[in-house]
Write a structure and sequence with these properties.
Layout lengths: L10 H12 L2 H13 L3 H29 L3 H8 L7 H34 L10 H10 L3 H18 L2 H28 L4 H9 L8 H14 L6 H6 L8 H29 L10 H11 L3 H35 L4 H22 L9 E2 L2 E2 H28 L2 H8 L10 H26 L1
Antiparallel strand pairs: 1-2
Helix pairs in contact: 1-8, 1-12, 1-14, 2-10, 2-12, 3-4, 3-10, 3-12, 3-16, 3-18, 4-5, 5-7, 5-14, 5-15, 5-16, 6-13, 7-8, 7-14, 7-15, 8-12, 8-14, 9-12, 10-16, 10-18, 12-13, 13-14, 14-15, 16-18
The structure holds tryptophan.
């Protein structure tokens, strides 16, 4: 099929780029506080189930759709089902989701970059323990700081996209992902050797099922999908860059393992330290910006080093995900005939405008007075992108694979045209794709509507 684009150069490149997409703020910023809110290990167990049974199935589904068609989502669906052109709406829905995610992502990445800067300049180290909540509030509500940092972050992202799929995205991911792993392990080691660390591990690994509500289950499902970057077409785009001879099952397994490992390691790096410093583990979205700095300050001078490393870790994790988001939107417009670089710049400008709105609407900001149902724009975008839109996109994507695409085509794609022995195909297709994944997604969405 139509595939004369440059893709990734090897399976290793595929795994690094896609793991780069998957591992992001979701793993380090969102996962620990969701885990904290919904019962520690109780949510971890549900999370693992969702990630492997639904998330990874979706990842393989998107890879098949992407590589088979060679297109970004809007064209990919109709290319594989020429008699059902309206499936392109699922692709467009995904682009909408990606656009919203990129906007809120830039805001949080901007905060992170700002905190990285302040950890280097010593600003964070000079704040008293009880001053971090105020510091974060005034940082996020400032009219220029969040905007400045989000624009800087976006420019980095754009430059990498302009570098191209192989020389930009793939190279940067191959460099950053190993660095990320080393950073997170170093933070774990420090955290685990703090006095009282075991309480944090207990919190993370000891299940409290009383806190696991239906709302929680939907949030965890949303998180499992969000974390693997599935349900919005991003992995269809990366799928279209997978070399013909790469093993999709193997790549998807590695990507999922990396994603889960980094999320759990982030929890191990964060909770023991939070307990050791006597802070509240259910700190919500502010955990990383209000609670962790107290933890770092309690460590003395090494704390400064760890603060720098931590915010660097978070910025780099965010960068490889932002790259994937911007690439998805760029590839979509490029598929429609626009020049690639022009598309990248246009998307960047448009998303910067939205991101500034979102930043200003965060609690305490100049636009935070605009609310709907008690939530401001920031909270809405966070809710939509974190809990609602990915499961809807995922539901239709997996229905497409299971009930619209030809079974023979899927088998052909997953087996690399008959080269690979894929004895697991029947389980994947007749069990997971056709029934388990759609049913679970549907139940979770309905349960949320009804409760
Ligand atoms: N997976 C990313 C994270 O965990 C966030 C994300 C969701 C994403 N959807 C995406 C990244 C699409 C790239 C593309 O932080």
């Amino acid at each position: 099929m139509a595939n004369n684009k440059t893709g990734f150069s090897s399976s290793f490149g595929v795994v690094m780029a896609a793991a780069g997409s998957a591992v992001g703020l979701g793993n380090i910023w969102r996962f620990p506080y969701i885990c904290g809110q919904y019962g520690g290990a109780a949510s971890l167990i549900v999370y693992l189930l969702f990630v492997f049974l639904i998330g990874m199935v979706l990842l393989m589904t998107e890879f098949v759709i992407g590589r088979r068609s060679g297109y970004a989502p809007e064209k990919a669906f109709p290319a594989l089902a020429p008699k059902r052109p309206s499936w392109k709406l699922v692709g467009l829905f995904g682009m909408f989701t990606c656009f919203l995610i990129l906007a809120i992502y830039l805001v949080i990445s901007g905060w992170t970059l700002g905190y990285f800067w302040e950890s280097m300049t010593g600003t964070l180290a000079s704040i008293a323990d009880d001053g971090f909540a105020d510091h974060f509030a005034s940082f996020a509500a400032s009219t220029w700081k969040p905007v400045l940092f989000l624009v800087v972050f976006l420019v980095f992202t754009l430059l990498i996209i302009l570098g191209g799929v192989q020389k930009g995205i793939e190279q940067v991911s191959k460099l950053l992902m190993p660095i990320l792993l080393v950073l997170v392990i170093a933070l774990c080691v420090r955290s685990l050797t703090l006095p009282g660390a075991s309480k944090g591990l207990d919190y993370l690994f000891h299940p409290n099922f009383a806190l696991l509500t239906w709302k929680g289950i939907l949030a965890i499902l949303g998180q499992a999908l969000f974390s693997l970057s599935v349900g919005m077409g991003a992995m269809i785009v990366y799928g279209s860059y997978i070399p013909r001879d790469s093993n999709i099952l193997k790549s998807a397994t590695w990507i999922t393992v990396c994603d889960v490992a980094i999320a759990v390691l982030a929890g191990v790096a964060i909770f023991p330290a939070v307990f050791a410093a006597g802070q509240d583990p259910a700190g919500g979205p502010g955990l990383v910006y209000q609670v962790l700095p107290v933890v770092f300050n309690s460590m003395g001078t090494v704390g400064t080093v760890f603060a720098v490393l931590f915010f660097l870790l978070l910025s780099l994790a965010a960068l490889t995900s932002a790259i994937s988001l911007l690439e998805t939107l760029t590839a979509w417009l490029a598929d429609k005939g626009m020049k690639r670089n022009l598309a990248a710049v246009l998307v960047s400008v448009a998303v910067a405008v939205l991101a500034i709105f979102v930043a200003y609407s965060f609690s305490g900001g100049p636009l935070s007075y605009i609310t709907l149902g008690g939530m401001n724009i920031f909270d809405w975008v966070d809710k939509l992108t974190g809990s609602y839109l990915p499961p809807i996109g995922a539901l239709f994507t997996v229905i497409f694979l299971g009930w619209v695409m030809k079974k023979e085509d899927i088998h052909d794609e997953l087996s690399n045209h008959g080269v690979l022995e894929i004895s697991w195909f029947r389980v994947f297709y007749y069990f997971l794709v056709r029934f388990v994944a759609p049913a679970a997604l549907l139940v979770a969405l309905l349960a949320d509507l009804l409760t």
